């Protein structure tokens, strides 16, 4: 207790002593007279400093006999001591815990520092504990009620959103189904015109029929799916079936195959994709197989995070270089528009062993330019 020693020798309070939160007093001599006290000690006994200084400590503290014994033992032995006293003047017993440290000078005890570490009537302690438990219980109940309310609101919101999503999905499917039916009606009407039109004049009707059929196939897929995306491999198979039905005779020697990964494509871009593939497939069937025999493959896969669509055949191939025939044979204005809507790049090359390979690379997602 160097600071206490300094204080007692200097006769003035040090900052640690005066501003301590615990009540502290210093006593001197065998009579244990109070030499100084801090502000907290004054508040504890509700008395002025001048009324306390110079008084025997035992006159202020409860159980003066036990207090005197403890003080004498510390003064005599120079050893730290603690004791708990009980205040008899209160209606209910009050308990205070006192800690005592000796202050030495030249190996002798010249005083004692006393710190009151706790003082509260027992009933006040119990009441404080009960109040704390009650407040805690009320707060816990409030939190439980708030959590239950929030959970109920969250469940209601989830149910509402789920129902809204289901309603939106049903509406999407219903609209897609109706669009598909209307488009198929147009295809049927065009097919009737084709039958009544001489073969040399029917090519325009046939091209229009396959284009509308490709869009109808798309809406058929949307009406039977989640409505969020379209499976590219399924769409290619429908396009292949439509090309075969519209352009090939039952006994034709031309085979249309699909080799595609399970790729999902948004419905808006799927329109441009389907029309592009239909256009390229139609062009290949018309020009690549003059002998009426061969294989056409519609493909799709992911390459380095990019979509890669291919239309390849083992037909006669290109007579001129790709750069010279690109626009005339394969790069029609329609295909160029569809490729641009996909945000893609168009390339034409000769296949090994004969035939033509058309490749369109496009990002996984991109807004339609219109």
Would you give an account of this structure?
The chain has about 375 residues and is of the alpha+beta class. Helices cover about 50% and strands about 25% of the residues. The strands form three sheets. A five-stranded antiparallel sheet has the order 2-1-5-4-3. A five-stranded mixed sheet has the order 7-9-10-12-11. A two-stranded antiparallel ribbon has the order 6-8. A hairpin with a 4-residue loop joins β1 (about 25-30) and β2. The protein is rod-shaped, with a radius of gyration of 49 Å. The model is unreliable at about 1-10 and about 320-330 (pLDDT under 50).
Brief digest:
The protein has helices at 2-10, 15-18, 39-45, 49-52, 64-77, 122-196, 203-223, 232-247, 267-287, 322-330, 333-341; strands spanning 24-28, 33-37, 81-87, 94-105, 108-121, 230-231, 253-260, 264-265, 293-303, 306-313, 345-350, 356-363.
């Amino acid at each position: 207790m160097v600071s206490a020693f300094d204080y007692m020798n200097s006769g003035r309070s040090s900052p640690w002593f005066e501003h301590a939160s615990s009540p502290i007093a210093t006593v001197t001599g065998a009579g244990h007279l109070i030499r100084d006290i801090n502000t907290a000690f004054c508040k504890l006994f509700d008395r002025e400093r001048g009324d306390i200084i110079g008084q025997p400590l035992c006159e202020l503290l409860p159980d003066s006999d036990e207090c005197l014994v403890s003080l004498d033992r510390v003064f005599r032995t120079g050893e730290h001591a603690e004791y708990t006293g009980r205040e008899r003047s209160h209606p209910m017993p009050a308990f205070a815990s006192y800690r005592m440290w000796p202050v030495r000078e030249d190996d002798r005890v010249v005083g004692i520092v006393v710190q009151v570490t706790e003082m509260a009537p027992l009933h006040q302690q119990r009441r404080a504990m009960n109040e704390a438990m009650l407040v805690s219980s009320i707060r816990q109940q409030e939190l439980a009620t708030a959590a239950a309310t929030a959970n109920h609101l969250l469940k209601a919101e989830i149910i509402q959103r789920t129902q809204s999503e289901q309603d939106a999905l049903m509406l999407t499917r219903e609209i897609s189904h109706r669009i598909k039916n209307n488009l198929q009606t147009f295809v049927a009407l065009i097919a009737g015109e084709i039958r009544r039109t001489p073969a040399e004049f029917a090519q325009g009707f046939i091209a229009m029929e396959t284009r509308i059929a490709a869009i109808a196939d798309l809406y058929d897929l949307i009406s039977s799916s989640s409505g969020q995306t379209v499976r590219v491999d399924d769409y290619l198979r429908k396009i292949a079936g439509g090309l075969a039905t519209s352009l090939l005779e039952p006994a034709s020697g031309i085979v249309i195959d699909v080799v595609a990964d399970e790729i999902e494509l948004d419905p808006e871009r799927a329109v441009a994709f389907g029309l592009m593939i239909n256009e390229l497939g139609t062009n290949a069937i018309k020009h690549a197989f003059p002998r009426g025999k061969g294989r056409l493959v519609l493909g799709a896969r992911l390459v380095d995070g990019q979509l890669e669509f291919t239309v390849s055949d083992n037909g006669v191939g290109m007579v001129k270089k790709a750069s010279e025939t690109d626009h005339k044979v394969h790069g029609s204005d329609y295909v160029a528009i569809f490729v641009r809507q996909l945000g893609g790049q168009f390339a034409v090359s000769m296949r090994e062993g004969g035939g033509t390979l058309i490749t369109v690379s496009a990002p996984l997602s991109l807004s339609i330019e219109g």
